[in-house]
Amino acid sequence: MGKKYEKLGKDIVEKIGGSENVSTFTHCMTRLRFALNDNRKANLEGIKSLDGIVNVIESGGQVQVVVGAHVEQVYQEVVKHIKTSENENNEGSHEKKGFLNKVIDFVSGTFGPLIPAIAGAGMIKAVLALLLVFNLITRESETYYVISFMADTIFYFLPIVLAYSAANKLKCNPVFAMVLAGILIHPNMSELRIAGEDVSIFGIPMSLVNYGSSVVPILLIVWAQSYIEPFFKKIIPDAVKIIFVPLFTILVTGIIGVSLLGPIGSFIGDYLAMAFDLLGAQGSWIIIFLIATFWPILVMFGIHYSLSPLSVAQLTTLGYENIIGPGAMLANLAQGVAALVVGLRVKDAATKQIASSTGITGLMGITEPALYGINLPKKYPLIATMIGGACGGLYAGIMNVSRYAIGHSGIPAIPLYIGENMWNLYNILIGSVITIIVTAVLTYILTFKYEKDLPTKDVSKQNEGIGDVNTTMIKSIVLSSAMKGEIVPLSDVKDEAFATEAMGKGIAIDPSEGKVVAPFNGEIVSLFPTKHAIGLLSENGIEVLIHVGLNTVELEGKYFEAHVEQGQKITTGQTLLTFDLDKIRQAGYVTQTPIIITNTYNYSDVSTSKTNTKIDFNNDLLILKA
To answer: For the PTS EIIB type-1 domain, which residue ranges apply (predicted)?
Structure first.
């Protein structure tokens, strides 16, 4: 698995235009986010075609590579191939971007790295709420006190955390930025504010405000630092830069920050709080309804994280949040449910596997794999998702549902709604039930219109080219071999996914000849671009996946040749794939080839009657009992 991520990381950097084309690079929960010096140098279609990549999006001045749940592993490999020092010398080569794109890029790049920590703190709050609900602790206990301030820490020190992230984004010294943020929340600053007396610096008056948990002031101050620090680096001689650049950067930026930018940011924050109050009193139901309905579209264009500052600001000013949380949670549940229903209904083995796995991750709050892998390509599940989200969102909006902490927007987020008003919990559960039922029913109905050849359990029909059918009390079908070689029990295959029968029952063959033939009359339902695997469907409903070798996807089609196309009709014995067996083995790959019945659930038993280990093309291989 590590080898796979290593190669993927290297390929992404190569196709993004190389390390020298990367201005800044970070990641969020599901995607890599690149700000490039020249977007035209990036081969976006090439990245999209890489195994393990869900999609590639250009939005908000960024190139966003959607990976899914394994984003952290891929990020660690990509970062090995990016030379930050080279990027710092290429500031003049950046593409010109519009003001709005710059703002979106800055906000996304600053808050993106913080989201996991903020979500983690929110989930600690959720655990704490559950402990209270089940009377395992009390609010007066030391345990509650300690865990509570652990969860609040990131919000209390939010200016410092934001300063570090913003400085990295703007390419100025993050330690200087953290010092500037520390000035805002220093205990002496709080004492001056509590004293209530006029304070000035060199005759410049200071407006004393509470900067704890603030967002806007430190962003403005770091923005100023990004101009002030380079100015002093430019005019101060190299011999004394190490002394005077920090001196003047912190002193000048600090004075401007506490006298001008900090109060301006606080003023903006106060008006945001007023706006939140007004929104809560007059139209919060509209926001929840719109987010629940159109959240997939925001995710699709990669701008959903740009709303994070509003969410954080509302929570830190009012103590609750309903701009993103309720609507996003309902939308994510709808995404997961739609994908799962598709997985239950379709016949294509590859689609069924993708829909089932991405549907589960969608319910957990990570929806990009389901969105790009199933719902968006098929379209009708996305329509069902938006309608289901809208119905649940309308109820949650009318009930003015809010959450008390920020975390993942999926099933694990339910405890975030436990707090002072328990009706928030009850109403989000009711909204979730509405969303799930509407989405599931609508997706199921739409499959009849948009999915052809839905699954059937009628496997008693005689099929030409599938050996003899035993017409005893228990009907059975004999499946012929697609390869020549030595039989290997599935439990002995050196791949856990196949060996544990997680993908279905079957058998494996270690081939002695580099050829795969059709084991029956039927159709090619899926042909992987790398030509190492092929999905077949017989005329009487048997779904078969033939996967030549283990991890051979890494060869990217090298040594493989396909003689058929997806959707093509096939006849028994027809050559489907050929491959250079010797070269694949010389490259270090195991050539055990699993032959899986992916719709195993349609049969009471799948077994082999072979007593010897050698097998030839079209010999009897598996017995499927109906």
So the answer is: 6-88
